[in-house]
Amino acid sequence: MTLKFKVLFFSALIVFSCSQHKSQQSQAVEIEAIHVVMNRQASAWNNGDIEGYMQGYWNSDSLIFTGGKTKTMGWHQAIRRYRTSYPDKAAMGKLTFSQLETTLTSDLSAYTTGVWILNGDSNAVEGRFTLVWKKMHNQWLIIADHTS
């Protein structure tokens, strides 16, 4: 192995290692940005602010909510359903998310799985969810929500 080849090889290795580190750092930043959206949603929910909670969702007729035996299409349909099911702050209870696992599938898409817990006056309910994210206009938004 010539000295020139060794220098080129190790230079390439260093560049590759740095780009991998940068890639991991940028992935961590994007995942944190998604979790910030979810934290804002939980905070809005816990303040009785359904509209604020819905800001984490894509405001489109193509937004998909599925769970149990139901499928709801569209942002307006979803917010209408939330308002009917949770008419006031007391009915909304306190929302927390846990066991979050977020995976980037590209620079502009990701999915998150986790557990939701809703503590009300008399009891707590919980379940699992999968959220599909899309980055639009430099903002992460949920485009599909499957909750059980």
Features:
148 residues; Nuclear Transport Factor 2, Chain: A; 4 helices; alpha+beta; six-stranded mixed beta sheet; 6 strands
What's the CATH architecture? Roll
* Number of DSSP strand runs: 6
Radius of gyration: 20 Å
- Enumerate the strands of the largest sheet in spatial order, edge to edge or round the barrel: 2-1-6-5-4-3
Q: Would you identify the regions where 5 or more consecutive residues have pLDDT less than 50?
A: 15-22
The mean pLDDT is 88
* Strand residue percentage: 35-45%
Shape designation? elongated
**Overall number of structural domains:** 1
Biggest sheet statistics: 6 strands, mixed
What report would you give on this structure?
By secondary structure, the protein is an alpha+beta fold. It has a single domain (3-147), classed as Roll (Nuclear Transport Factor 2, Chain: A). It has helices spanning 3-46, 50-54, 75-85, 89-92; strands at 64-67, 70-73, 94-106, 109-119, 124-136, 139-147. The chain has a 6-stranded mixed β-sheet with strand order 2-1-6-5-4-3. A hairpin with a 2-residue loop joins strand 3 (94-106) and strand 4.
